[in-house]
Amino acid sequence: MQAVTFREFGAPDVLQVSEVDRPEPGADDVLVRIGAAGICYHDVLSRGGKIPGKPGRILGHEIAGEIVAGGANVPPERMGERVVLYQRLFCGTCRNCLRGRQDLCRYGRVLGEQGGGGYAEFTCVPARNAVRIPDGLDMTAAALAVCPVGTSVRAALGIDETRDRIGEMRTFGRGVTGRWQTHDIDPGCPSSAQAGQGGVDPATQPVAFSIGGAGDVGRPVEPAREQ
Asked: Is the pTM higher than 0.85?
């Protein structure tokens, strides 16, 4: 498959299109054909050598696409499902994962930090990281639900505990991210927050809230249970 990689740290001109092996899904994984991938400032820092890691990686953690194959433990009905990918890979068994805070997993990492990112034709992730998107939702818009919008909802409903401050306007960041993370606390919104200028598009709300944490704040998937 084709992918965008970089042989050395530096400016955007170090990026190049390369031919790489297509990943193969494990028993609990899905193979996703990528339809859209966003560029996060995290990727810019990685390319510039500001975040630990080696050149040659496939960056990108804001990913939307279609499931085209799955491992032995993935239900066949998931084939063809349009999804966004929760960007944090987590163990599911540590203390934080068991309490629904997979974002704080002690063994976690972000897609693209060690390869397997979205700047490619395909990527492989655990099936639990693939979140179904509504029919008709544009994949470019869906990819934005993962990091900027999901982070915004998580900040509004979790860290800042905005449920009790209806009508306030809150900002949780600077620059472009800060503009995404401006929230008008609206009692009419199912999760009591609308993210971004003018709020979350109604079509993206189910995705944003499932990743950012509607109801159980910050819970992208059901946490693992102790055996």
From this structure: no
